[in-house]
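The instructor's notes for this session suggest beginning with a concrete chain rather than abstract definitions. Hand out the sequence below and ask the class to guess, before any prediction is shown, which regions might be ordered.
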Amino acid sequence: MAQSGQNMPLEVQHIRKALLKEFGELISMDDFVKKDPKERETALLSRAISAKAARILTDCTSDEAAAGVIDGRDDFGIDCVAFSASGSEIYLIQAKWKDKGTAGFDTEAALKLVHGLKKLDNRDLDHFNERLQLLSDRIHGVLQLPTCKVSLVIALMGDGRLSPETRGILDEAAREFGGHGRTVAYRVVNQSDFHRAVREDLEPQPINLKATMNREWYARETPFKAVIGEVSADQLARWYGGDDESEGHGERLYDRNVRRSLGLTGVNQTMVDSILEDPEGFLYRHNGITVQCDEIIQEYPFKRAVGQPTILTLTNASVVNGAQTVTSAFRAYEKDPDATGDAYVMVRVISLEGTPEGFGRSITKATNTQNHMERRDFIAIDPVQSEIQKDFRISLDKEYVFRRGELDPAPESGCSVTEAATALACMHRDSSLAVRVKGSTNALWSEGPSGAYTRLFGQQPSAQQIWRAVQVLRLVRDELTKTRAKLTGRPAAVADSGALLVAHLVFQRIGRERFDESDGDWEGVLAEVPKEIGAVLACLISMVDALFTPKSFVTSTFANEERCTRLVSAVLGTLERGAGPDSPMNLAALMKISGRTRQRRPQTVRLLIDHDAIEEGTRLEYAPSAAEELAIGAWLNADPRRRRASWVNDRKTPLLWEADGKRYSPTGLVSQMWNEADWKEQWSAVQGPKQWRVPGEGTLVEIAERLWQRIAAGEGPEGDDHLS
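After discussion, reveal the predicted structure:
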C-alpha cells in the first residue's frame, strides 16, 4: 500500500489508517489492479469513506457498508448505496477524498449525483454497473414505497462547505422529486464527522451494573443523585467475573479509575484472606468503594422506603476507587462463594447526570488521594493520555498503556507511558529533565509550569513523535549495554551514569524536526543512531574529565543539572565543529569558555523532590528556635495543628499546612505563621528548610545534605534518607 501523502494533517492520517484497516480487505478494487499504487489507494479511500458514511448514517456493519459500494465505471455519480434499518429510506452517497483534507463538492459533482437519482427514479437501471445491479431489487422496493425517503449524501474529506450554486442544485432536486409523501433531502458528512466516528469506534461499550442494597442505605437527590449503602462482596465479584446469567467486565470496570487492579499484591492477599476468614467483620475493616455512572435507576421490590431493599441499575458505570477491593472480592469468590456472600462493602454510587464539566474527574482524584498512591496514578484521568492511546491505535496500530497495573505491551507492539515520558524527557531541549528522570521516574509526573509532566504532555505529542522517541531511546540503551561491556574504569562509569544524557545528546543531534516528518527516511535515521551514540559517548567521556578534572565524581556529575547543561553544550559544540574529542584546541577553547566553577549543591527542596527523598504524605513538624518559641509559642500551642504539615512532592509548594489545608514553600509557611501570630519583631531573614523537620530524620536541610554527600561520593541517592 502506498505511503501517506506529505504533510497530511494528523486528523486525516487517523482517518486514513482506520479506513484502510476497516475496509482494505472488504471493498473490491479489481478495476485498479494495473493502476499506480498511489492512484489505487486514493480510489480505495474514496470508496471507503462512502462506506464509512453509510455506517455512520445507518449503523450497518462494515461488510454491509462495503457491499453497497458501487463506485467505478457507470456509477452515474453514486459511489455507495445504503438502506435504513426500517427499509423505508435509501442513501445515495458520493464521496471525495483528499490527502490534505481539502476535498470539495462542486456544481458538476452535484449535477452528476442528481442525474443518478433521476435514473434510479425512472427505474432506468440497465446502464448502471454490475455492482448496482446486485442491489436493484432492494432499490426498487424502497423507491416504490409511497412514503420513501431519499437522502443525497456528500461524503467529503474536507470541511464540507458547499457553494450557494451547489446548494441551489440540490435544493431544486429536493423540490422536483419530493411530494406525495415522498421526501428528498441532502446532507454532508465531513472530515470532523469521520474523525469522530473513528474515535467512537475505539470507545469501549458502556457497562451497566446491577447492585442490590438489602441493609442500610441512604439516597441523596440534590444537588446530584447519589446512593450510599452496603453491597455484598459476591455482587462485586460478579461485576468482575460474571455468572451464569451475564458476562463479567474484568478490568474494563476501572476504565475511569486512576489505575487498574495491581494483581495479587500483599495488601490484596490480605483482603482476600479477610473476606474468607471473617466475612462479617470485613465491612468494619474496609473503607469502601466509589462507583460513577451516568444515571441511577432505583427500584424497590417490596416497599419504597429507606430500610427496605433497593435495586440499583447503574448505566455506563465505572469503579473509580476500589479496584483492588473488587478484584480481591473476585479472587475470594473463586475460592468460597458462600463466604463472599456474607461479606459486605460500603459502596458509594454517584450519578454524573446534571453535574458540571470536570466533576467526575475531580471525584476520581479526590477519592484516590490516600496512602500508597503514586503521583503517576493521577495521570490516568488526564484526557490527554486517552487521546494518545487512541492516536497510537489509529495511526500506528500499536498499544499505549498509562494506568498502573496494566501489563506493558511487547516491545514491538507498543510502549508504556513511563517509557514514553522518559523518551520525551530525553528529547526535550532542556537537559535538566533527563537529569531529573535519572534521579527518580517520579519526577516525570510533577505538574505545574516547571513540572516535567506539564512540559512533556501539556501540548499533546502525536503517537508518531512518541513512538519514534521510544525507538531512539531503546536503541541508545541497547547500544550502551553492548559498549559498556567493553569499557572499564571512568569510561564505564560515564556509560552507566550518563546513559540518559547520552540519549539527550543523540536526540539533539538528530533534530526535533525528524520526529515530526511524515514521509522522511526514518529507517535511515535509525540506522545512523549507533554511530551517533559512539561519537557522543567518546566525546562525553573526554569532556567529563576536561571540564571537571579526572578526579571528579562521575555519579554526582550526572546528578547535577548545572554540570549536565555545561556538558551538553560542550559535547554538541565539539561535534558540531567536526573535530574529534581529543582535539587540544577545541578542548582548550571550551575550557576557557566554560571555566572551572565549584560544584554547588542544588537548592534543598529541588534536590529532595528530584530524588524522591521524602514520601508523599510524610508528617513534618515545625522546629522553632528558642527566640521564636518565646515569641509565638503561645499562639502555636493554641492549635496544635499549627506545628504540623505534610509533604507534597511539588517543587514550589511542598508543605501542606494542617492549620488551614493550604500549600506553602517551607520559607513561605514560616512567614505566614509569623504574620498570623502577629510577631512584630520578626526577623527579615527566614530559613524555612531549617525550621521544618521529619521526626527521627532531621530538618529538610539535614536530609538534603546527607543525600548530597552520598551523591557526591558516587554512592547514588538511595539510602536511609529515602523516607518510605
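Then share the key points. The longest strand covers residues 89-96. The mean pLDDT is 84.
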